[in-house]
Amino acid sequence: MNLEPQNSKISESENFGNLRISGFQNLQIFKSQNLRISESQNLRISESQNLRISESQSLRISESQNLRISESLNLRILKPQILRISKFENLGIPESQNLRILESQNLRISESPNLQISKSQNLRISESQNLRISESQSLRISESQNLRISESLNLRILKPQILRISKFENLGIPESQNLRILESQNLRISESPNLQISKSQNLRISESQNLRISESQSLRISESQNLRISESLNLRILKPQILRISKFENLGIPESQNLKILESQNLRISESPNLQISKSQNLRISESPNLRISESQSLRISESQNL
């Protein structure tokens, strides 16, 4: 099915073999109660200057093999109550300058083997109450200048086998109440000059086999009430020039087999009332010129075999 770029309407259609929407200057889908795109083999939205999906109660895109949104200048999804993207083989959003998902109550991306977001200048997910990314085999977010996830009540990334966040200029996750990354086999955050996680009430990274944060110039985690990294086999923070963990109420790293912080020029842990590192087999902090742990009310390191 091909559409004319002058005036086109898509209504009351359930199944498409191939759906291509290309060459539009302005494409607007708005004020629809239920928008469902299901069981389509290939869904491509390419070379559109402005794509806006606004004020829809529920937006569901499910059971499609390939979803590609490429070379779009502005992609905006505004004020949907429920946004579900589920059961994809390949979900790719490459080469988009601005991708904005704003003021959505529920955003769910589930059961997709490959989720790739690459070469986007600005990726913003803001003011969403629930953001869930679950049961995806690989999640890759690479080569984007700015990734901002702000003012979200719940951000959950569940059961991805591979989670890679690489080659960012600015990666910021501010003002989120709950940030959870659960049961991921491989979590890698690499080659990002600035990684900032600030003003989050709960940050939990649990049951991940490999967690690597490497080659980032500055890593700052500040003003969060609870930071928990639990039951991870390998936690490695490699070659950061500046690593700052400051202004925590509770900072806990329990039950991790290997915790390595290697070749960091400046490591500062400051102004945290409670700092607990417990039940870790190997804790290594090596080759760091400056190591400062200051203004903490209680510092507990217990039941570790090698420190």
TrEMBL record:
Its source organism is Caenorhabditis briggsae
Q: What is this protein called?
A: Protein CBG19273
Q: Which InterPro entries match?
A: Cornifin
